[in-house]
Design a protein that fits this description.
single chain; about 180 residues; alpha+beta; Immunoglobulin-like; four-stranded antiparallel sheet; 8 strands; about 25% helix
Length: about 180
C-alpha cells in the first residue's frame, strides 16, 4: 500500500485550515486602526475595529488606554463604547479586559443592524481622570461567510478523497497466493 502521499495531503490540509481561521479569532487584540495615540483627557487612546470593512453583524472593538508620555497601559478604567448609527438608537457597551487576548486591552463585541455611517465614541473614567475620543466608520452590508464556505468545501474534498481511497483499493494477493 502506498502511503508516501499521505504526509503531503496532511500538510496541505493543515495549511488550508490555518488559512481559513474565523475572523472572530483573529479579531481579538487587533484589527483596523481607527485611533492611534489620540489625546483624550489625561490619557491617550488607541482603537481598532474588526472586521475590515465594518459590516452588519458583529463589530469587535479593541481599546488601549495609555499614559501619553510612556505608553504605560491604564488597567483599571471604566471604558464605554457608544456606537450611534445615522438613524436608530445608539448602542452602548462596556469594554473590559475579561475576553481580551492581550490583558492590557479593553474589548467588546457590538451587534450592528444597519448600514451607513456609524459614529463611535470611546469614553473612559479612571478615578479623577476622564476623557473621550471618537471616529466614524462606514458600515457595509453583511457579506458571505467565506471562511465557512471554504471549510465546508475542504471537508467535502477530504471526505471524497478518503472514500475514494477506501473504495479504490484493490486487494493484492498475499505472497504465495494466486
Amino acid at each position: 500500500m502506498k502511503t508516501a502521499f499521505l504526509p503531503k495531503y496532511f500538510a496541505a490540509l493543515v495549511l488550508l485550515l490555518l488559512a481559513l481561521q474565523p475572523a472572530s479569532v483573529l479579531a481579538h487584540g487587533g484589527g483596523t486602526a481607527q485611533l492611534v495615540k489620540e489625546p483624550a483627557g489625561a490619557y491617550a487612546v488607541y482603537v481598532w475595529t474588526n472586521p475590515d470593512p465594518v459590516r452588519v453583524g458583529t463589530m469587535h472593538v479593541t481599546v488601549a488606554l495609555v499614559e501619553p508620555d510612556s505608553d504605560e497601559p491604564i488597567m483599571n478604567a471604566a471604558v464605554q463604547i457608544t456606537a450611534t448609527p445615522q438613524t436608530g438608537q445608539p448602542l452602548v457597551a462596556e469594554a473590559t479586559h475579561k475576553n481580551a487576548t492581550v490583558k492590557s486591552y479593553y474589548e467588546v463585541d457590538m451587534e450592528l443592524t444597519e448600514t451607513g455611517p456609524l459614529q463611535v465614541a470611546v469614553a473612559y473614567q479612571d478615578g479623577d481622570a476622564a476623557g473621550s475620543a471618537g471616529f466614524t466608520v462606514q458600515v457595509e452590508r453583511a457579506g458571505m461567510n467565506t471562511a465557512a464556505i471554504g471549510l465546508g468545501a475542504a471537508l467535502l474534498a477530504i471526505g471524497g478523497g478518503v472514500i475514494w481511497m477506501l473504495l479504490g483499493r484493490k486487494k493484492r494477493p498475499a505472497a504465495g497466493e494466486q
